[in-house]
Amino acid sequence: MVRPYAIKGKKRKNRDEKYDKEEQEHDEQVEVEEEEPAKQASIEKPTKEVEGKEEEKGETATDELVGIPIVPSDKKTNKNGVIFVLEKASLEVAKVGKSFQLLNSDDHANFLRKNNKNLADYRPDITQQALLSILDSPVNKAGRLQAVYVRTEKGVLFEVKLHVRIPRTYKRFSGIMLQLLQKLNITAVGKREKLLRVIKNPVTNYFPVNSRKIGFSYSSDKLVKMRKYVDTVGGDVNLVFVVGAMAHGKIETDYIDDFIAISGYPLSAAMCIARITEALADKWNIL
Questions:
Q1: Could you tell me the sign of the dihedral formed by the alpha carbons of 266, 105, 160, 158, in that order?
Q2: Predicted TM-score (pTM) of this structure
Q3: Are 270 and 229 within 8 A, CB to CB?
Q4: For tag attachment on the chain, is the N or C end more exposed, with fewer CB atoms within 10 Å?
Q5: Could you tell me the CA-to-CA distances from 231 to 83, 128, 147, 252, 280 in Å, in that order?
Q6: pLDDT digits over 124-150, tens only?
Q7: What is the per-residue pLDDT across 219-240, written as a single tens digit (0 to 9) for each?
Q8: How far apart are CA 151 and CA 199, in angstroms?
């Protein structure tokens, strides 16, 4: 007799299909059971993530607050300040011999005479002393100084950052001014911040809207006491003081609102600035 292989094969196929269906149904049930907790987890997960984000924000906020310096109570953003402009500064670069140098009346007297130049017009030390008087003042230390600008006799305008340390010796100051006039900026050591940089004229583009420009001249008919004069200026006005950084002469600018004299005697630029900052310190109670 011949064995019914075909019938036996069909039975095996039916059994296999039955087992496959049962396994498939079992898998579907498992997937359904796994999907339900997954959905619950997905519903609960955003709230946890939001809470985690809020906690992270809180932690980052506390980290950021640690690095922010505490502002003293006497420094308020609504307080107006003062701006200084040094006009006609005698800062001129020329090629003397084989190198470029900042001209001054002591070291380059023969060079200036050969070129029919007045020695009194080449006094870079006046600008150095004036900048030291401004930046060393208690007005700057108290944060009431807003900006310092210098314009040379040739019309080059540059800005001086308030936290820059001007060299005390003339030799170093001369080297910095030479580099500034050649490269148009001076950067801090190891940083990209520009401590001194040449900017575009006119200087009035950098003044606040509500500002009063005051010039100083010994030849002015308006002789005033500096302390009383600053008291008459309203608290909502930004003061801009324009001081000449030259040995002789008068400031000739068209943007000055008022020309005054603060002494019956000619004063140097540094002494004039010292009187201004002292009067402002008294007005603002800066000790």
A1: positive
A2: 0.72
A3: no
A4: N
A5: 17, 29, 21, 26, 9
A6: 999 999 999 999 999 999 999 999 999
A7: 899 999 999 999 998 878 899 9
A8: 10
